Every structure is written in structure tokens, then in C-alpha cells.
Amino acid sequence: MDVLVIGAGGMIGRKLTDRLLAAGEIAGRPIDRLTLADVAAPAVPAGAGLAVESVACDLAAPGEAERLVERRHDLIVHLAAIVSGEAEADFERGYAVNLDGTRMLLEAIRAAGGGWRPRLVYTSSIAVFGPPFPGDGTLPIPDDFHTTPQTSYGTQKAIGELLLDDYSRRGFVDGVGIRLPTICVRPGKPNRAASGFFSGIVREPLAGLEAVLPVDDDVRHWFASPRAAVGFLLHAAALDTGLLGARRTLTMPGVSATVAEEIAALERIAGPKAVALIRREPDPTIRRIVSVWPSAFDARRALDLGFTADADFDAIVRAHVDDERGGRLPF
After folding, report:
1. Which of 210, 223, 327 has the alpha carbon at shortest distance from 279?
2. Which one, 2, 126, 133, 140, has the greatest CB density within 10 A?
3. d(CA 283, CA 31)
4. Is pLDDT of 319 > 80?
5. CB of 177 within 8 A of CB of 119?
6. Could you tell me which residues come within 8 angstroms of residue 88 by beta carbon, excluding any fewer than 6 positions away?
7. Which pairing describes strands 182-183 and 255-258: parallel, antiparallel, or unpaired?
8. Of 95, 122, 153, 167, which is the active-site residue?
9. pLDDT (tens digit per residue) in 123-136
């Protein structure tokens, strides 16, 4: 297989790259070549056992998508995006990256022609959903719930899902869209995602640092670990798309938890000294954005198709401790 990962410089992209290199195959098909693309050329992991190319590419720039897909890859994983808070703050950039870049990629594939029909795994988001939610937010959102996003980021992702459906229907790509839960606990430094505090209130205390909590303890959300997210991508890459029908995008399974339940999991694993590092500092802008996000799903389609999630929020915290901190706790 010839594999292209777009957005390979991001956290999920790096972790996916590591998994691909470690496995060396997808669904029994050996990976012969791996191309890593991002706005800045991603670092190539040392000791890669196969041919790896790193390229700098801005999908929203004219001609860049066409250049990127010249190799006619068998599998393309599209992770490139700017995050929710940044897309809300910078309207033009959000549409340029999250929508125009996606459409230019699809158009470049279509224009290549010649019967080339790659598997395209597109990362969408649960931000495509907006209120009113079932039971005024007390019931899980089913697979057939309408998409009415209340943020620019969610709108951009919802349009991308429709494009994926149509380009798949027309035979230009063999698309699978996955609506990712909020990924938690994200390693590294905070980004501009409105959801970043969900990771911060766990990640920083586990490093012995203070964390800011901008919302109330009863805010509930839908989560998956980075480890689970990479598993979703790999499963989507190998999925029998004949089982999807016309609806190419699936809501991924996850863990529904409140901020209070996050904090309780942190305390069970790292103790009260870690929890004491959380400082409450209300932020009306973040509260407004988060208030229109969904909090729980009945992801039956994805589960029936073999996608698997973390068992609970304790498992999400432990995955971060094991994968990012070598099993070390701060206290």
C-alpha cells in the first residue's frame, strides 16, 4: 500500500505514523511507502522500516492538492484542520483550512481520473451536532440525529461530510468519515481548541502544574483517548465500505463524563494533591461554545462495525500516564 497522511505533524498524525510504522501493514496489506504532509514538513521518525517521504503542503493554496496526490495513493488519511476556538475567532481562516482545503483535496483526486479511487478517511467531529438535543440534553444522541452545528468549526466539518458522501457516491473516492469525540488527554502544550481545558485539568496536574478550569463542574462531554482515536483511524482504513450505504460518516464511540467525573478519576489515580492544582476561572466565551456541544451518543452503527472505545474515564487518564509519562505520577 501507498499511504498519505495529511496533517501528519499534529498530535494524532504523529501517533498514527508511529502505529503505521510499527505495524508495517493495514488489514494484511504491507505498507510500501508512507507520505507525511503538513503545512510544515513533519519530522520523519528515526529507524523507519519502509520508505517515508515528508512534504510541506497547504491544501488551501492553488495547485498544492494536485501536487500532493500525484502518486495516486491507495489510502489517504485527512487529519488537517484548525481547531474549534481558532475557527471561531478567525472566520476566514477556518473556512479556508477546514472547508476549502478539503474540497480542493477531493477535486484534485477527481481531476486525476484514470479510475483511481483511493480510500479516504476524513476526520469530522461531534461539533456537527447542535441543540435542541434529545430529552433537552438528557438522552444520548442517536446515529440518525440531524446535524445542526452552532459553531463555524462544526459547520465546516458538516459540509465536509456531505462532500465526502457525494464524491463517494460519484465514485471519485471510497470515503469513510469518523466523527471524533473530544480527544483527551492531549499531550503537549495547550492549543486554541475551546475544548482544550478538558485535557488541561488532567494533563497539567499530572505534570505537577496548575490548570485553569473555565466552566462549571456539571458540564458533560464525550471523550476518547488519543490511543482510541488512532484505533478508529486504522479501523476506518480497513473497513468494508459496502456496509455503510449512502451515509459515509460514523459517530465514534466514546466516554460520556462530566468535569466532576474527570476530576474524580484524576483523584483516584493521582491523589488529592493533583486535584488541588485545578484553579477555577470562569470564561464566558468558552462556556458559550461548550454549551451547544453534545454530551452523549448512542454510537450503535460504529460499534456494530467493530469500532471500540475506552472503557471509562479512568482508562483515559491511565492511557495518558502510560503513553506520555512512562507510568510516572507527580506525587
Report:
1. 210
2. 126
3. 46
4. yes
5. no
6. 94, 151, 152, 153, 194, 289
7. unpaired
8. 153
9. 999 999 999 999 98
CA-wise closest residue to 254 among 305, 307, 304: 307
| Contacting residues for 22 by C-beta, under 8 A, at least 6 apart | none
Domains of the chain: 2-181+224-251 (3.40.50.720)
Q: What is the dihedral of CA 302, 186, 204, 281, to 10 degrees?
A: -70
The CA angle 125-152-163, to the nearest 5 degrees, is 60
Cell readout for 171 is 465514485
d(CA 210, CA 203): 10
CA distances from 255 to 156, 163, 224, 267, 286 (A): 24, 28, 6, 18, 21
Kindly report the pTM of this predicted structure.
Answer: 0.95
- DSSP 8-state assignment for residue 139: S
Q: Is 122 a catalytic residue?
A: no
Distance CA 294, CA 71 (A): 39
DSSP 144-155: T-----SSHHHH
CA distance 35 to 256: 35
pLDDT digits (tens, 9 = 90+) for 27-60: 999 999 999 999 999 999 988 888 999 999 999 9
Question: What is the rounded distance in angstroms from the CA atom of residue 240 to the CA atom of residue 244?
Answer: 8
Measured CA to CA, the distance from residue 170 to residue 164 in angstroms comes to 10
Q: How many CB atoms lie within 10 A of CB 258?
A: 16
